[in-house]
Design a protein that fits this description.
By secondary structure, this protein is α/β, with parallel strands linked by helices. The chain has 11 helices and 7 strands. A 7-stranded mixed β-sheet has the order 3-4-2-5-1-6-7, sandwiched between helices.
């Protein structure tokens, strides 16, 4: 049965897109069939995998057609990039927030569409850094949510704000659960990093904080600049090793 995971945080620049891409790639290399859906109008995931503007179909085209009752198929928007299946975003997606506002059942549109994704083990949805209609659609469609964050105080504040809203989302999707927190750009030598990790564990329990931490690694940024996942770019880097360990821990949790 396909598991749908939203990757979310209200704070930008915390490794959300990097985690979506490379966790999916690590699971792919472990024999799992994965799909990435970019529902962020900034299209960082789409661009980080080298997908150019002007794709035939994007997630915007699919949401627009579904909202207005046109014949539709989510799988028609899937493209291949760096060996991964991806439903790309586009700048037009910024219009979706306004277009969906007046549609009956607007929170359920993506959930209806993802029912056709039966041949994947895991679908990862990269969310915008805000609780708008696109993020709500992603969470209502999801089984679990994964929150990457840097071990610093502003990202931690973003997590707390997100979880306040997440309690309301559970009224729309009773099955959705918090899978846990992934610490990114982590340096165990830094006192602040260790302190924020301890705060997370005390506030939300140790079980909710992944033991695998993603270390600072320039190869992760270079891979995105080249439009690749980390395994296509440098499978021997620290970033590749960290996401492989994260994938193994992820499989134990789900």
């Amino acid at each position: 049965m396909t598991k749908i995971i939203s990757i979310a945080n209200f704070k930008g620049g915390v490794g959300k897109t990097t985690t979506a891409i490379n966790l999916a790639a690590a699971l792919r290399d472990l024999g799992k069939k994965t799909l990435l859906i970019d529902v962020d109008p900034q299209a960082n995931l789409t661009q980080s995998l080298g997908i150019k503007d002007g794709v035939e179909r994007s997630i915007y085209d699919i949401l627009h057609k579904e909202a207005f009752g046109e014949d539709n198929d989510l799988t028609a928007a899937i493209v291949k990039a760096s060996g991964l299946d991806v439903i790309p975003s586009s700048l037009e997606l910024a219009n979706a927030e306004l277009e969906l506002a007046s549609i009956y059942g607007r929170e359920q549109i993506l959930a209806q569409l993802t029912k056709s994704l039966n041949n994947y083990d895991f679908v990862f949805i990269d969310c915008p850094p805000a609780m708008g209609m696109l993020t709500i659609n992603a969470l209502v469609a999801s089984d679990t949510v994964l929150l990457p964050l840097q071990a610093e105080f502003l990202p931690l504040k973003g997590v707390r704000n997100f979880l306040k809203h997440f309690d309301h989302i559970k009224r729309l999707n009773k099955k959705v659960k918090l899978l846990g927190f992934v610490l990114t750009k982590f340096d165990k030598r830094k006192k602040m990093n260790r302190h924020v990790k301890e705060l997370l564990e005390s506030e939300f329990s140790k079980d909710k904080v992944f033991k695998t931490h993603i270390r600072i690694n320039i190869a992760l940024a270079n891979a995105q600049q080249k439009g690749m996942d980390i395994y296509s770019y440098d499978k021997n880097s620290n970033g590749a090793m960290d996401y492989k360990e994260l994938a193994k821990e992820f499989l134990l949790k789900v």
